[in-house]
Amino acid sequence: MERVDSVLRQLTGPLAVVGVLLLAVAGGVVFVNGQLDRISLMIGAIGVALIVYYVLERPGDVATAVTGQNARYGANTAAFSIAIVGILALLNVLSGRYSHRIDLTQSGAHTLAPQTIQVLQQLDQPVKVTGFYQNANQYLQSQREELEDLLKLYQRYTSLIDYEFVDPVIQPGAARQMGVDAEGTTVLQVADRKQLVRGSSEGELTSALVKLVRPETKKVYLLTGHGELDPQSFEQLGLAEAKRQLEQDGLAVDTLNLATAQSVPADAGAVVVAAPSKPILEQELGALNAYLDKGGKLMVLASPGRVDPANAIAKRYGLSFATGVAIDPGASFFGDPRAPVVGRYQFPPITRGMDGKATIYPFATALMLPKDPNPNVTVTALMETTDRSWLETDERVVQFDEGVDTRGPLVLAASVTAASDRATERQGDGATGRAIFVANSDFVGNNWLLNGSNRDLFLNMVQWLTEDESLIAVRAKPAGDQPLLLSASQANLALVVSIVFLPLSVLVVGGVVYWRRR
After folding, report:
1. Residue-range domain boundaries for the chain
2. CA pair distance 505, 341, nearest whole angstrom
3. pTM of the full predicted structure?
4. In Å, how far are 223, 273, 315, 418 from 264, measured between CA atoms?
5. Which tens digits make up the pLDDT trace of 447-496?
6. CATH number for domain 114-208, candidates 3.40.50.2300, 3.40.30.10, 3.90.226.10, 1.10.220.10
7. Which residues touch 328 (CB under 8 Å, ≥6 apart)?
8. Which of 137, 193, 199, 468 is the most exposed place for a label (fewest CB within 10 A)?
């Protein structure tokens, strides 16, 4: 019996350690499961019993541990730890009541654009947001989480936004009632109006919100009757995709034949003339000029071989489209110098946030700006080719001929603001016309619109013409952070600091503390 007691006494230390471990395991189980179940209670009880057994068997050791020098150090450490935990708890409570976010991402991924905040603060009606995401789809779940985080940001600036998520597989009737035919669709509702969004970005959501709450839908007319690009065509150079994108941006799109209409309709937010190949009649030009005199908005696109009809309109502002093809070996699409690529822009109201985003202009010409512009007309170049470019007069070759070809940079697009005397007399200072001239039409065709950032730039141009600049600012916000690129020496330095220097510092500090306490 004495031998058994001796063995148990020798095991009290290890048993106490086991008891502490069992308590830790029980606490971990409770933390993971979120509740105190029977198993965790049993494990914890065994741990407590082992620790109590140690205290009863070795009361002297416990008393020495409690009253000794190590105990005082331990008490100080415990008090310091409790103070730290208390401070953290207090900070947590304060942060819950008085929250403030600091976004350190390069793209401002966790900060709403000022235009979005303005839209939210101007809301005067409740907005119901319903996201249709299948719970079992992992990819859609990540999109749902992004959307929910964004909506929580929106709710920080308005109490009029409420949201919910619906699984269309479990509730197919709700999806049909909302007109949803694809998962990952979000429906925004104000009264009896609604907008459908496929995506989870701030630009898409805020644009839909703006379109939902603004009083009227602006209309864009595409001129026809002169061999312009066809808005109904799905061929490479058709405009069916451009038409669809404009409608998704909340604009109504229709065609306009001035030979029969004789004037631009009063509800026109803008008129687009997309690369006419046949002459525009004088009566039609007169109708366009009358529209511009009243502060109208116009976009003219031209490409090599289709410059003369477009020049008939451009000469109003002293502009002209050149004869020839823009060649740019300095920045081209996959090495094709006939397809210049632009990544730097001017005139921020249209190109805000576009720097660094590539737009492609296959088989473009050049736009010649006026040398002596009318004082009532402001012409601004939007984008240019590089200084290695030139205007090739012979489309069959790619070779600069001194004295024949024109050296770059070449202007590919320009904006115009103009207030004529007649416009001022009729409608006051607000009757300022706007126009955009682009020396390329292929960049908005079905084959190229969704390449690079062509779509964004095209929609920005139209929204500037229709005076919806708020949508430009939101859409132009970068979608994500740029990767951090390190040189070889920088990468090696980061590796040495993280793997060698930091662990070695901890060992040195620990060794110094140990040596001083000996």
Report:
1. 2-97, 114-208, 217-475
2. 50
3. 0.63
4. 10, 13, 20, 18
5. 999 998 899 899 999 989 998 776 665 665 544 444 454 545 556 667 76
6. 3.40.30.10
7. 337, 340, 341, 385, 386, 388, 389, 408, 410
8. 193
Is 54 within 8 Å of 12 (Cβ atoms)? yes
Are 175 and 139 in contact, with CB atoms under 8 Å apart?
no
Among 133, 138, 140, 192, CA closest to 163: 133
Structure tokens at 392: 């090739």
Length of the chain: 518
Q: Which amino acid is at 259?
A: A
Which of 3.40.50.880, 3.30.70.270, 3.40.50.11440, 3.30.830.10 would CATH assign to domain 217-475? Answer: 3.40.50.880
pLDDT per residue as tens digits for the range 96-113: 555 555 555 555 556 787
Rounded to whole angstroms, the Cα distance separating 468 from 115 reads 11
Q: What gap in Å lies between CA 350 and CA 473, rounded to an integer?
A: 9
φ, ψ for residue 337, nearest 5 deg: -65, -15
Between the alpha carbon of residue 81 and those of residues 21, 77, 179, 186, 216, the distances in Å are 20, 6, 57, 47, 62
Please, where are the H alpha helices in 156-201? 172-178
Residue 53 CA, chain-centre distance (Å), reads 63
- Alpha helices, DSSP H, located in 219-333: 240-248, 258-261, 282-293, 308-314
CA distances from 386 to 328, 342, 345 (A): 7, 8, 12
